[in-house]
């Protein structure tokens, strides 16, 4: 009661810190470590299983090969390349993903610049419409677009998914880039215009270089979105040109129509996950920034 | 060498080249326009490629699908609200609707609730970034791969044979089971299991955003409350949670829309069998397997109608943010 006011706060803080090392603190660690284990368990199970021989896979659980590790082999990975088209599926996924990532970035950057630094009537309304398009379910677009693709004779070609993914990815791309470009300092552009720069020069020399962090985040997003896409490829490539299918659709076909066993499904899943995981761990910072930039900040 | 490689290279280099060339061309074109009109025309030229893509791939197809939903299986034969009457009169279709409602409620509960708890807990430990990566990484892989991973979790062998699925292995260790998880339609449990798979992917999304918002709360404010003797729970309940509420709302919007659009997990794990169908999958089946494009279009429109209120909320929030910008 007689403690001087000035040292009450530090004392209380020390008490609070002391409290953290007791039961509550232990419970926090326990819960978190348990959650991490639960989150990792499904993936570890399938990973270990994909490294076992096909007879082991059929006769016992993956955990029996763990303590001590025994009979681990890459046979299943060799088998999935031998018995399925996963190798060409990997190439197809790349063919689909790279153009479908690059095209929307350019288109969105031009639009984002117009929305940020040009004045025109209806600008805000139009931008709200673009934000609204963000949530349109793709299902409402398939039937008319499929027919158009058929009529102009490109059904099943890679071109169809490049174009479709560009259209579907644009609302988010414009939204993300516009938020970032719009927050660049106004003075930069004003002084450039005073110096006689054209909008094209201002865009390529100023806006674009300053927007690189947002473009990196967007590129990662669009890349993962297209690489991981099942629905769009399933609809536009699925029945017409099976040789153009990406890995996601191939894996779904393995599951549904061919009833493939775990010795093929496990390796196939991990081959399809390899690139996203590399991208994720190498560029996690941009990935997180893209998510928080797209959802928290308006 | 794969001949398609040439095409891909041409696209990767050619398309950006064409687009950049287009922007330079607009300035050339604008030279022929009276100077006072240039600033008025220029933005539309910059927007043109985007507006073409949005129009051709989102706006016009959506309008056509809405019109198509009022026509029968044969195009051009107007049938009024028949397709919608079919939807509300078919038990299978209504099961899909019920499941989507379950998805909205439970995915939001699991992913946002879980994300919030983890964000708060992880803020107090030194291995924060590792823990976050572990929870977050499923979002980077495809739903297809996640579905395969979890099919293996739920894998079921008939009683008496060795269980190879992880969960039945655990149950077996306690002398329980085996359970054919994906076929248990009592209380729509199998739908709940599919929701858990999606929550496994999306909890990290909610966690990352809520964690960013949490870091934005002033440390002095929390310290002051603690100094005044508030327990950790009261600090969370009366300071942290109210301050996080706007972000919780934003995250929930995204999760609700994800729940309404859910497709991949159901397709890969059960193909909609055992009463796990959802509207987005039903739409594909009606259109492309049963060949009734009228029914399919109506299902797509129902999905759109379910999303519009969420979208409207999103837009009003967005406009409020723009106003204080």
Tell me briefly what this model is:
Chain A has about 300 residues and is mostly helical.
User: What order do the SSEs of chain B take from the amino end to the carboxyl end, as H and E?
Assistant: HHHHHHHHHHHHH
Shape of chain B: globular
Q: How many domain units of chain A?
A: 2
- Rg over CA atoms of chain A: 26 Å
The quaternary structure here is heterodimer
Q: Tell how many strands the DSSP assignment of chain B holds.
A: 0
CATH top level assignment of the largest domain in chain A: Mainly Alpha
Can you name the CATH architecture of the largest domain in chain B?
Answer: Orthogonal Bundle
CATH fold type of the largest domain in chain B: MetI-like fold
The secondary-structure class of chain A comes to mainly alpha
Helical amount among residues of chain A, as a percent range?
over 70%
Number of helices of chain A: 15
* Proportion of residues in extended strands of chain B: under 5%
Task: Give structural attributes.
heterodimer, A: 298 residues, mainly alpha, MetI-like fold, 2 domains, 15 helices, 76% helix, globular, B: 325 residues
Question: How would you characterize the overall build of this protein?
Answer:
- Chain A is mainly alpha-helical and 298 residues long.
- In chain A, 76% of the residues lie in helices and 0% in strands.
- Chain A has two domains: 69 residues, no CATH class; 212 residues, MetI-like fold (Orthogonal Bundle).
- The radius of gyration of chain A is 26 Å and the shape is globular.
- Chain A starts with a helix and ends with a helix.
- Chain B has two domains: 66 residues; 241 residues, MetI-like (MetI-like fold), CATH 1.10.3720.10.
- Chain B is 75% helix and 0% strand.
- Chain B has 13 helices and no strands.
- The termini of chain B are far apart.
